[in-house]
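Quick one, probably user error.
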């Protein structure tokens, strides 16, 4: 494994990495961050409990990453164990205590003082458990046991691989997002669901509670009170003369939601994502106006932290840098980020297309990386005609595999539903583990009518909800025959450059089209957009997703180097082109 650190690495190697409150839309004052050094052990699958712990690991960085302090690859035969002792703060006294995990990859059992308090399957979504009854006075022992077979299994794992090669990246095993405790009263607010409706001028709010009590909400526009009243568990709040959220004006309302002794702070935005007709074509709309979305593929990998950003500032850097270049959208590719990443997109003004994490075995040589993305070089007829009900071909022949995918898909949607910046869901990408995409796309749309759905991004279009979504690498960008759906170029470009001292491995670095200098790569980028992409907008193109925000391991097609040290294109040229990317 190569070591390539970002500028934030030193700040991450502290007593408590990522110390910020991890859930910005539901903030409580009484909490304890457990990030930092844990004891760890690796055992075989038959070991019921480690006889000893062999070293320390820095949470929340995965064991494979250099920021974890371990940099070790595990296999399907291993079980990864964590242990940490903690003592509750004084203000937790007499309250219920909740234990939260941002994400643990893949299957984990959680024990407190040798009593199992949680079990979770799925590597990308948050989960929690009430641990009050398992607590003891003084010091408590938290132990987590993890099983992660990566590509030896069938689970939803995205681009993780047992060994890095081509488009497949170093695995992320175990805890990789913040671990934290929270104190709540005996009756408390468990969850809520926020749905803005700008046409009716209301925010629809559904609240789930433990115990009973009168709910009350205060909504603020800065210091001005917009709403201040008791509410029911299923209510609609009038937001008069609502200030609408957009990348150009990312306005957020603050609120305080209370029930008895419990109170949580949060925020929401009034905005609408929809499809409408404009200049003779179906288009993407924002707040009832046609709005061209110019975006980037964002895989969210870090050269030192793997899937885990080293610091909060690192997350902000990626988002703000892309916004400064003139982009207004990021396609979060086959990854679910920590909640704070979405918060920064909300407040900075960046639309997000959210992918579901791919799973299943490789479909063929193209997916396995032997011929990387060669399908994109072929005629569209070749890869748009295959039906996805051939479960065995797509390595989804066992019903429990398909069921697990759907459960995790809707678990992800529930976890991210309240995030204002998310405007689109992508259940499947380029056929990886794809099945029944039309049915699943329709089900996602029915579950969340407030957002757009791209049921099958890139390949194997099943004519479903809600876009005509095409990937183009190497081959020219062309406009397909319109079929009533907005046409989006959901991946393209991938222009590549090796910058000495800022690559994962110079000898193995690759890209779609390689350039030796910033000048030559910038000129090619300008030519691609001026000759192919911008003219396609007048023919119905509604959104673009350029590949990509940063290099990832051997893949050197980023706007930024993998360590985020260099911008590989001339910023002024990129910004000028983006200013032309509109209806």
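Nope, works fine. Designed sequence:
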């Amino acid at each position: 494994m190569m070591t390539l650190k970002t500028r934030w690495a030193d700040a991450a190697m502290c007593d408590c990495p990522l110390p910020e409150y991890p859930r910005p839309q539901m903030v409580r004052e009484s909490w304890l961050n457990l990030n930092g050094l844990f004891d760890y052990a690796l055992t075989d699958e038959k070991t019921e409990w480690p006889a000893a712990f062999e070293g320390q690991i820095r949470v929340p960085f995965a064991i494979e990453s250099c920021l974890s302090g371990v940099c070790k690859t595990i296999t399907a035969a291993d079980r990864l164990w964590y242990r940490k002792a903690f003592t509750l703060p004084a203000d937790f006294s007499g309250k219920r205590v909740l234990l939260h995990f941002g994400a643990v990859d893949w299957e984990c059992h959680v024990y407190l003082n040798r009593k199992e308090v949680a079990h979770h399957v799925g590597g990308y979504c948050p989960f929690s458990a009430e641990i009050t009854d398992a607590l003891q006075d003084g010091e408590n022992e938290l132990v987590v046991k993890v099983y992660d077979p990566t590509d030896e299994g069938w689970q939803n794992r995205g681009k993780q691989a047992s060994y890095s090669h081509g488009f497949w990246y170093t695995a992320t095993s175990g805890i990789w997002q913040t671990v934290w405790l929270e104190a709540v009263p005996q009756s408390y607010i468990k969850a809520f669901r926020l749905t803005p409706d700008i046409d009716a001028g209301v925010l629809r709010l559904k609240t789930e509670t433990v115990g009973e009590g009168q709910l009350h909400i205060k909504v603020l526009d800065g210091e001005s009170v917009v709403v201040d009243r008791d509410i029911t568990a299923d209510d609609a709040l009038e937001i008069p003369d609502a200030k609408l959220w957009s990348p150009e004006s990312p306005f957020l309302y603050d609120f305080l939601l209370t029930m008895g002794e419990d109170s949580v702070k949060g925020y929401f935005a009034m905005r609408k994502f929809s499809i409408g007709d404009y200049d003779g074509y179906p288009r993407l709309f924002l707040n009832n106006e046609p709005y061209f979305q110019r975006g980037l593929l964002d895989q969210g990998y870090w050269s030192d932290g793997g899937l885990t950003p080293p610091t909060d500032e690192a997350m902000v850097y990626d988002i703000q840098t892309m916004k400064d270049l003139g982009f207004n959208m990021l396609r979060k590719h086959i990854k679910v980020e920590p909640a704070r990443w979405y918060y920064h997109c909300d407040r900075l003004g960046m639309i997000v297309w959210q992918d579901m994490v791919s799973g299943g075995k490789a479909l063929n040589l193209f997916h396995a990386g032997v011929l990387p993305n060669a399908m994109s070089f072929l005629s569209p007829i070749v890869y748009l005609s295959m039906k996805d009900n051939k479960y065995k071909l797509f390595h989804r022949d066992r019903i429990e595999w398909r069921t697990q995918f759907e459960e995790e898909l809707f678990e992800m949607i529930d976890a991210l539903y309240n995030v204002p910046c998310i405007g689109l869901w992508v259940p499947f990408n380029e056929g990886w583990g794809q099945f029944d995409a039309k049915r699943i796309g329709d089900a996602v749309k029915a579950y969340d009518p407030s957002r757009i759905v791209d049921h099958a991004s890139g390949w194997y279009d099943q004519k479903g909800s809600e876009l005509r979504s095409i990937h183009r690498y190497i081959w020219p960008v062309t406009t397909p025959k319109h079929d009533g759906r907005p046409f989006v170029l959901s991946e393209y470009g991938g222009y590549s450059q090796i910058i000495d001292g800022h690559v994962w491995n110079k000898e193995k670095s690759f890209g779609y089209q390689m350039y030796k200098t910033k000048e030559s790569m910038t000129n090619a980028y300008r030519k691609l957009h001026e000759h192919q992409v911008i003219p396609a907008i007048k023919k119905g193109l509604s959104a673009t997703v350029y590949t990509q925000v940063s290099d990832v391991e051997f893949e050197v097609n980023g706007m930024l180097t993998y360590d985020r040290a260099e911008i590989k294109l001339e910023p002024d040229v990129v910004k000028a082109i983006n200013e032309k990317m509109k209806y």
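The CA atoms of residues 25 and 207 lie 14 Å apart.
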